Amino acid sequence: MSVLPKSIRKLIEELSRLPGIGPKTASRLAFFLLKNKDLDREGLAAAIDNLKTGLVFCEQCHNLAESVLCSICSDRNRKQNLICVVEEPLDVVALEQGRRYNGTYHVLGGVLSPIDGIGPKNLKIQELLARARGTNDDIEIIIATNPSLEGEGTAMYLARQLKDFVNVKLTRIAHGLPIGGDIEYADELTIMKAMEGRREYKAN
Length: 204
Description:
By secondary structure, this protein is an alpha/beta fold. The protein has helices at 6-16, 23-35, 41-53, 89-97, 125-133, 149-162, 188-196, and strands at residues 56-57, 64-65, 79-86, 103-107, 139-143, 168-172, 199-200. It has a five-stranded mixed sheet. It starts with 5 loop residues before the first helix and ends with a strand.
């Protein structure tokens, strides 16, 4: 039987569900929250609770947003005919840190992974195709999925789906990124070079 009060045990249990947080780290965090008198616990709780009520997904790019369109899609200074396709919202954050890209994004919500039961219908692929069909202007779509097996497979699938779009120039982000690495962990210079060195991308 645990000597800890139920409220502490519950907090440790919930913290342990976070990625990279084991029981020992969760316990340390719980006791830090308990002992730190200067910590705004109510503010922290409100911020966590606001994740449910204060966030939506952008109707255009499917990135996290606070209104119908995210701040990037609603920015008239961004090039609307330049779309960078990424796996997750964290990839948008990483690419924006490079401060060289002035287009929009399209967040797939993951990658194709048959072994995990994730197919095209589980991702925002049809929405991307609809964006391409919805304009008569020439557009460039930059595929910036991670250079992993699943990321490359997803990139090839997208290339095949988009190859017959006459108004679409398809490019693949340059592999200044290490094979097996994720965009969110790349430094600003690597991201800048990868974006500048993008190349045309075609399906076989």
